[in-house]
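TICKET: design request
STATUS: open
ATTACHED STRUCTURE:
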């Protein structure tokens, strides 16, 4: 890292700085900036698979809605917004493949490319929080519609509403945090700028466990209702 603050550099000094490896190579390794080893084939394949699977399932849901129900509820609108944010979420995958940055060591990319990788990470994280917020809210509202009889506030009513309230609060807070964690804002993808960024590792870990917990509620709740059915 240069001893001169980035903001005080001349244009030529900035260009020279940004053209250097984003990290010093460890002992025994050499930086390869022109043609680094990568797994862009794997990264692009996974991104395409996620795109196809998600949109096939979403279109099936739209088909069922227009053919069989046709009555618009808030969960349909939330699902549509979630599909839009998920589509934006997939963009970083395609851009990283274009950059040739999948599974590339930090010392094998210059700071220009590293900045783009961090920007894609910021977009992906932001869109992930929004997608989880809208998609899981839609699912909980749908479970409430399907499994709650509507004439009494039973356990299903409270589980769905409490889970809905908690997930809205958590994912909204996560979204706001990632917009405010760096000062100035664009230091999130330009770490050499003067300023500060809070440590995101805590909320990253919390998001993993929280997401698993919500997924378990979403999965288990319908099973408990199915097993209560008195079928011949």
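STATUS: resolved
RESOLUTION: sequence designed for all positions
ATTACHED SEQUENCE:
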């Amino acid at each position: 890292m240069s001893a001169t603050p980035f903001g005080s550099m001349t244009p030529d000094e900035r260009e020279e700085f940004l053209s250097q490896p984003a990290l010093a190579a460890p002992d025994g390794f050499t930086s390869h900036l022109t043609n680094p080893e990568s797994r862009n084939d794997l990264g692009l394949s996974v991104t395409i698979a996620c795109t196809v699977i998600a949109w096939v399932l979403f279109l099936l849901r739209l088909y069922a809605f227009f053919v069989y129900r046709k009555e618009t509820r808030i969960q349909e609108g939330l699902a549509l917004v979630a599909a839009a944010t998920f589509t934006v979420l997939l963009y970083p995958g395609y851009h990283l493949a274009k950059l040739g940055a999948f599974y590339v060591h930090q010392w094998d990319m210059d700071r220009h490319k590293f900045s783009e990788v961090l920007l894609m990470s910021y977009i992906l994280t932001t869109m992930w929080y929004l997608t989880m917020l809208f998609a899981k809210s839609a699912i909980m509202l749908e479970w409430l519609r399907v499994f709650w009889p509507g004439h009494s506030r039973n356990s299903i009513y409270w589980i769905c509403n409490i889970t809905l309230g908690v997930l809205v609060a958590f994912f909204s807070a996560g979204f706001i945090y990632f917009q405010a964690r760096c000062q100035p804002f664009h230091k999130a993808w330009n770490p050499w700028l003067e300023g500060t960024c809070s440590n995101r590792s805590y909320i990253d870990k919390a998001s993993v466990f929280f997401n698993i917990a919500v997924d378990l509620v979403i999965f288990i709740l319908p099973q408990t209702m199915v097993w209560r059915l008195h079928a011949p």
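CLOSING REMARK: The longest strand covers residues 182-183. Strands lie at 182-183, 196-197.
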